[in-house]
Amino acid sequence: MLVKEVMHSEVKCCRSSDNLNTVGSLMWNEDYGIVPIVDDNDQLQGVITDRDITMAATLKHRPLWEISCSELLEGKSCFTCQANDNIHDILEEMGQRQVHRMPVVDADNHIVGIISLKDVVERTTARAKAISRSAKSLSAGEVVATLRMIRQSSSERAPAT
Asked: What is d(CA 13, CA 61) in angstroms, rounded to the nearest whole number?
């Protein structure tokens, strides 16, 4: 199974010059937990999560409309995948990186979608009901293993190779 078979392709983004109040409003209106941040050329700069906004509000002691997306993204890594990547590989990557959602980009780093564990679980459940399992189908155990890896504390994880 490929990422493009599971991902959400209709994704609204914010600009790196936008403020966190704008991002938070988009999250509220669209029921998002993550918003991709793009530059003026629509290239992905990073992502901001609802947790990022909560932590910024708590630690920066400034109103959200005074904190730019670019300020929050400074020094923050963003892990991406592509639409034709194998979902099994991406689940492993999500587990290793301890992320629930991952932006999907094209070769020019333009956002084409978002894949989330929720999407994978829903797709896996629907597939299991619709067809019999084959050797190449995605198993619920694989999704559960990814969730376990994400929830592990850093002290419990094996060092990355």
From this structure: 25
